[in-house]
Amino acid sequence: MGAKKNFVLDTNVILHDYKCIENFQENDIYLPIVVLEELDKFKKGSDQINYNAREFVRELDALTSNDLFLKGASLGPGKGTLHVVTGDKYQEKIALSFPEKTADHRILSCTLSIAEKNPKIKTILVTKDVNLRMKARSLGIQVEDYITDKVINVDIFERAQDTYENIDPDLIDKIYSSADGVDSDLLEIKSKLDPNECFILKSVRNSVLARYNPFTDKIKKVDKGTNYGIQPRNAEQSFAFEILNDPNIKLVGLTGKAGTGKTLLALASALKQANTYKQILLARPIVALANKDIGFLPGDEKQKVAPYMQPLFDNLNVIKAQFAPGSPDTRKIDDLQKNNQLVIEALAFIRGRSLSETFCIIDEAQNLTPHEIKTIITRAGEGTKMVFTGDIQQIDSPYLDAQSNGLAYMVDKMKGQELFAHVNLIKGERSQLSELASDLL
């Protein structure tokens, strides 16, 4: 246990994780009164940050006593105390650099004041705002990102599935000839494999796309077949269909840059299995341009979010285009939509629902926080499969990055679980121009 510290929390930390005050061990936590003022602005609404604001205020109310504003309220055994700081003067040192008394500048002033009153205790501002962190450093204020749920190593999101060479060619022949696969003990690399991991096996004369099936403890061949009109164009897409089509795998992560086919593959697999599930649900979070509220857009709530949902309908139209108009496969899609068995909507509209016997696809999951991902997964009822797709390098939320977003967090925490599988798609398949833009721009 190190020396005790004082942590000053910015509003965005609470909006990111309303349970954040539980994660500072025996250290003391300070909330500038301006943080409560900002939280009050976020209480109304149906987005996750609105929910987080309300929940935090409720938890704070449960602690409410005069101590909270005086000597601090205890957070429990092994924890520090929580203080709400009021009445601090705007520090002259802050005013010289930042004369405008914005919320961020008042938080900086409060942090400086706490540090001056407690010279023997390290005082640290915690914020997910990169710009505020730079301002703090310019003033000599110690500052950190909120790293409790950060993923340290994101290398798996930058490389394709593994290829193992110098494999016995006769073993590869056996994998091809056996519908159920071969005993995993026959493969020397077994100890390196995670449950449901997909990989390529190569010998001097043959090769095979394969997967380790933890339910049978076998190495099985990965099929390259068509799924509802969509033919996999590379090994990674074949791997994606493999894990999407296995009913034993309840949670799937598909990552990769734009144009790799993540959402299209998930939707094609869902349509192939439409008779297995009561509903196919395709949703995505709404992150408006420049993080502005969508309230300024014309129309009712459904009309406001329609432009953000269009990419999902585009994927559906790509699948429908594989069949002749009026064909049984096209009519099936139309019937599913008409009967509310295929639903495309904003993620906010499904909050609070329990999802049973549903093939649920969450697109653009890199724009979700770890807490949001957890909330969605815990809604899964019996017979539900959840698929999260996204690109951790293409994040629209201002307070998330490649290491702190919910998609990366889920893949990192779930790796090694039998119910989970992850495939990272590398090769773009939209067009040469799309591939070039993803790589260079």
Automatic annotation (TrEMBL):
Q: Which InterPro entries match?
A: P-loop_NTPase (IPR027417), PhoH (IPR003714), PhoH2-like (IPR051451), PIN_dom (IPR002716)
Return the Pfam families for the record.
PhoH, PIN_4
Is Transferase included in the keywords of this UniProt record?
A: no
Q: Which residues form a coiled coil?
A: none
Residue intervals of the PIN domain:
5-134
Give the protein's recorded name. PhoH-like ATPase
Q: Which UniProt keywords apply?
A: ATP-binding, Nucleotide-binding
Q: Which domain of life is it from?
A: Bacteria
